[in-house]
Design brief:
There is one protein chain. The chain has a 5-stranded antiparallel beta sheet with strand order 4-3-2-1-5. The chain has a domain at 15-97: SH3 type barrels. It has helices at 12-45, 125-129, and strands at residues 51-54, 59-66, 71-77, 80-85, 89-92. With 136 residues, the chain is of the alpha+beta class. Strand 3 (71-77) and strand 4 (80-85) form a beta hairpin. It contains 2 helices and 5 strands, in the order αβββββα.
């Protein structure tokens, strides 16, 4: 008689996967909730006179707010104001933020091409390709 061998249990890898997936999901959800709470606190803390950047990348200063509607009035240029919902605040701009252009001393100045000095392409290659793919 042959005795059938029976497995005493599942693979430990399967057990680790089954236990590890819920833990990973919990940690990711917790991280997202923290980020959302921080963003909401930032949006609530911005008041009149705060310089902000909106989610659309517009910089300006808050000049008025309506807490009932949840809106702010943002001055983006002298005399130019727009009305936004408070949720459009991406971040509050500090005086320490540096918005100067990146200037690297190691840049090769010869690599910069002034398009005003460039000669126009008279080969006609662009005109030929504008009609469609190149056919043999």
């Amino acid at each position: 008689m042959f005795l059938a061998q029976t497995s005493s249990g599942g693979s430990p890898i399967v057990l680790l996967l089954l236990l590890g997936m819920p833990v990973m999901l919990f940690l990711m959800m917790r991280s997202q909730r923290k980020k959302a709470a921080q963003q909401q606190n930032l949006q609530k803390s911005a008041g009149i006179g705060s310089e902000i950047m909106t989610t659309a990348g517009i910089f300006g200063t808050i000049v008025d707010e309506d807490e009932d509607e949840g809106t702010i009035v943002l001055e983006i240029a002298p005399g130019t104001q727009i009305k936004l919902i408070r949720g459009a605040i991406a971040r509050v701009v500090d005086e320490d933020d540096d918005y100067e252009e990146y200037d690297d001393e190691d840049d090769d100045d010869d690599a910069v091409v002034d398009l005003a000095d460039a000669e126009p392409d008279t080969s006609g290659a662009d005109a030929d390709n504008a009609e469609g793919p190149i056919r043999p």
